[in-house]
Specification:
The complex is a heterodimer of chains A (about 300) and B (about 270). With about 300 residues, chain A is of the alpha+beta class. Chain A has helices spanning about 5-10, 15-45, 50, 60-80, 110-120, 175, 205, 250-255, 260-265, 280-290, and strands spanning about 85, 95-100, 130-135, 160-165, 185, 190-195, 215, 230, 245, 270-275, 290-295, 305-310. The longest helix of chain B is centred in the first third of the chain and has 23 residues, at about 5-30. The chains are: A alpha+beta (about 300), B alpha+beta (about 270). The interface between A and B is large, with 69 and 56 residues.
Chain lengths: ~300, ~270
C-alpha cells in the first residue's frame, strides 16, 4: 500500500505538502529579508554614486569633478559647512623626503595634534598618524620605548624622543599586499589610499613595519568647528567606517608648495621636509652632510623618512 | 729535506717557552691594573630650565593690547580666530593654564638704560648678580658651565642695544646671528643652509616664501638652551583605544590646547 500509492495523489498537491512547502518558502523569504536588512542602513550612509564609483586611477577628469562635488555635498550634509575638496596632482621633478633631527626633538607632541587638526582625523575613537616614542638613551630597542609618557614637562633627562609616522617607503610592503590596489605610491613618493576603493581588510596595517596605518573601526567623530575645510581627495577628506588611513605628508599642503602641518608647529625645528631632487633643498643638505639613518633598515623598505643626530 | 739543525730546535723551543710564559702571565693576572681614570673635569651643571614655548618681548605683547594677530600663535591656532590675551590689573599678561610654559623676554635694554655705562656686580664665583628689576625677564645661563654670564662678552658696555664681537666689530640686534657665529660656527653653517632652526611657509619657493627664523627667535641669548615644554596629551591607553567612550564624546574629544586647525591651504 505504501509502496504503491494511488495515482491521483501523485499529480495533485496534498494539503499537508502544500502547507509544508509554503511554510518553508515563507521562512526562507523572511530569513533573506533579515539577512539583507543591513543593506537598508547602508543606503543612508552610502550613495549609489559612491557605491558605483571607479578606482581613482580610472576616473576621467570630468568624473573626478563630479566625485569631488559629491563629497562636498556629503560633508555639507553631515557637518553643515561646505568644504573645498580638490584632487591635487603630483608635481614634475619632485620627490619628497622627510628628515627628523632626534637631537632637537623634545617630545612635546605638538606635531601629533597639529596633524590631527589638519587632516580631519577622528577624535573619538582616537586616530593619530604620528606616534612619539620616548626611548632611553643608548638604545633603539622599541620594546623599551614608551608612547604614553606624561611628565609635567619635556624633555626628560636620559631619554630621547622619536616620532614615528608613515615613512613613505620606496619599496612599500603595504601596497604589495593590498588585494584591490586601493593603495599605491605616487610619482612624488607619497603612498596614498583611495578611501573609496579600500575594502578594509587591514592587510596593509599588518604589513607595515612602522605601525603607520590606522583603521576606522567605527564611524569617525570630528567636532564641526574643528573640521579643516581645505580638503584633498587622497588626503584629508573625511573618512568613513571600515577604511584605512595614514600620513600622506599633508598632500593638500605639500602639493601646493607648503610645508606639512607637523613641521609648521615644531617649536625646535627638528622636522625638515623638501624636494630631494633639488640639490639646494634643506633635506638634500641634510642627506649629504649629516649621518642619517632609517628605521628598521634591515627590512628593506627604503623609507623616504630619515632620522639623524646633530653631532 | 734536511733535518732541522740544533740551532733551529733551540729557537723554536725558546719561542714556545716565551709564548707559554706570556699566555700564563695573561691568564694569571686578570686586569689587575686599574683602568686609568681621567682627572675629574669641571662638572657640567645645566641650569634649571624655565618652561617656555613662545618667545616674544613683553613690550610687544603688552603693546598688542590683546590683539595677537601678528604673533607666532598660528601654528596651532586658527588665524581667523586669534586667541585673546588676558591682562592682569597691573598690566602684566595672564597666561592660561595650558600655556603655563609661555615666557616673556626683554628685548629693548635702552628703554631704561640710556647712554649710561653700566656697572655689573659679581658673586664670589664670578656669576653676575642679577638686579631685581630683571628677575622675570632675564635668566643668565649661557654656556654649558654657565660661564658666559658677563653682559659685555656680547653687549657694548656703553650702548646695550649694540653688540660687539671679540674682534671689536659692532653689530645691531638684527645682525645677532653673526655674533652667535663667532662661537657657534658649525651651528651657524648648518643654519645658513637651513639644516638648523625652523623654516615655515613654503618648501617650494616658486610658489611662496620660506620663512626663516634667526637665532634669537628660538633661543633666549641670555639662556639659550631650549626650555622645558609642557607636552600635549598622549594617545589614549591601548586597552581603550578604538572604543567610543561617553566622557570623551561629551567634551568633543579634541585636545584642549588646540585652538583650531592650522592655516588651511591657500587654494
Amino acid at each position: 500500500m505504501i509502496a504503491n500509492p494511488p495515482p491521483e495523489s501523485r499529480d495533485s498537491i496534498s494539503r499537508r505538502s502544500f502547507l509544508r512547502g509554503s511554510t518553508a518558502a515563507a521562512a526562507g523569504v523572511a530569513a533573506m529579508a533579515a539577512g539583507l536588512a543591513p543593506l537598508r542602513k547602508l543606503g543612508e550612509s552610502i550613495s549609489v554614486d559612491q557605491f558605483l564609483q571607479q578606482h581613482y586611477k580610472e576616473l576621467k577628469p570630468e568624473d573626478m569633478d563630479k566625485v569631488l562635488r559629491r563629497i562636498e555635498g556629503e560633508v555639507e550634509r553631515q557637518y553643515g559647512v561646505r568644504p573645498h575638496v580638490r584632487d591635487y596632482k603630483p608635481m614634475n621633478g619632485v620627490e619628497y623626503v622627510y628628515a627628523l633631527n632626534l637631537t632637537r626633538c623634545v617630545g612635546c607632541r605638538k606635531c601629533v595634534h597639529a596633524c590631527v587638526a589638519e587632516n580631519n582625523q577622528s577624535r573619538d575613537p582616537e586616530i593619530q598618524y604620528i606616534q612619539v616614542i620616548k626611548m632611553p638613551n643608548g638604545t633603539f630597542d622599541m620594546e623599551k620605548g614608551d608612547a604614553h609618557y606624561a611628565p609635567e614637562s619635556v624633555p626628560e633627562k636620559g631619554f630621547f624622543y622619536m616620532p614615528v609616522q608613515c615613512h613613505q617607503c620606496k619599496n612599500p610592503p603595504c601596497t604589495k599586499v593590498c588585494p584591490v590596489k586601493a593603495t599605491w605610491t605616487e610619482p612624488d613618493g607619497i603612498t596614498v589610499i583611495d578611501y573609496n576603493w579600500c575594502i578594509g581588510c587591514r592587510y596593509c596595517e599588518a604589513a607595515c613595519p612602522y605601525f603607520a596605518r590606522r583603521f576606522n573601526f567605527s564611524e569617525p567623530t570630528i567636532p564641526k568647528d574643528k573640521l579643516n575645510l581645505e580638503m584633498s581627495y587622497l588626503g584629508n577628506q573625511p573618512r568613513h567606517k571600515g577604511v584605512m588611513e595614514k600620513c600622506h605628508f599633508c598632500i593638500q599642503r605639500t602639493r601646493v608648495g607648503r610645508y606639512p602641518a607637523c613641521l609648521e608647529v615644531c617649536p625646535t625645528g627638528s622636522r625638515k621636509f623638501g624636494n630631494i631632487l633639488d640639490p639646494n633643498s634643506e633635506v638634500a643638505h641634510i642627506l649629504r652632510e649629516k649621518r642619517v639613518f632609517v628605521l628598521k633598515e634591515e627590512v628593506g623598505t627604503l623609507p623616504r623618512f630619515f632620522y639623524y643626530f646633530d653631532v | 729535506m734536511s733535518t732541522p739543525s740544533a740551532k733551529t730546535n733551540l729557537v723554536v723551543a725558546g719561542l714556545v717557552v716565551l709564548f707559554l710564559a706570556l699566555a700564563a702571565s695573561f691568564a694569571l693576572s686578570p686586569d689587575k691594573a686599574p683602568i686609568r681614570q681621567d682627572p675629574e673635569l669641571n662638572k657640567i651643571v645645566t641650569p634649571a630650565p624655565k618652561v617656555a614655548t613662545l618667545r616674544i618681548s613683553a613690550k610687544q605683547l603688552k603693546a598688542s593690547g590683546g590683539d595677537t594677530s601678528g604673533l607666532d600663535c598660528y601654528a596651532c591656532h586658527d588665524e581667523k580666530k586669534p586667541p585673546t590675551v588676558k591682562m592682569g590689573p597691573d598690566g602684566s599678561v595672564v597666561f592660561p593654564k595650558e600655556h603655563g610654559d609661555l615666557r616673556l623676554m626683554m628685548a629693548n635694554c635702552e628703554a631704561c638704560h640710556v647712554g649710561k655705562k653700566l656697572e655689573v656686580e659679581y658673586e664670589k664665583d664670578g656669576a653676575v648678580k642679577m638686579p631685581k628689576a630683571h628677575e622675570d625677564l632675564l635668566t643668565m645661563g649661557h654656556g654649558r658651565n654657565n660661564r658666559n654670564t658677563n653682559c659685555f662678552n656680547c653687549h657694548s658696555p656703553t650702548k646695550l642695544n649694540e653688540l660687539v664681537t671679540r674682534d671689536g666689530t659692532r653689530l645691531t640686534f638684527d645682525q645677532a646671528p653673526l655674533l652667535c657665529a663667532s662661537c657657534h660656527g658649525p651651528t651657524y653653517r648648518d643654519w645658513e643652509v637651513g639644516m638648523h632652526g625652523r623654516t615655515n611657509g613654503y618648501w617650494d619657493t616658486k610658489q611662496g616664501a620660506a620663512v626663516r627664523q634667526d637665532c634669537n627667535a628660538c633661543h633666549d641669548p641670555h639662556g639659550p638652551a631650549i626650555p622645558q615644554i609642557i607636552p600635549l596629551p598622549g594617545p589614549k591607553p591601548v586597552l581603550t583605544h578604538g572604543l567610543r567612550s561617553a566622557a570623551t564624546a561629551a567634551e568633543g574629544g579634541g585636545p584642549k590646547a588646540e585652538g583650531g586647525p592650522p592655516k588651511a591651504a591657500n587654494q
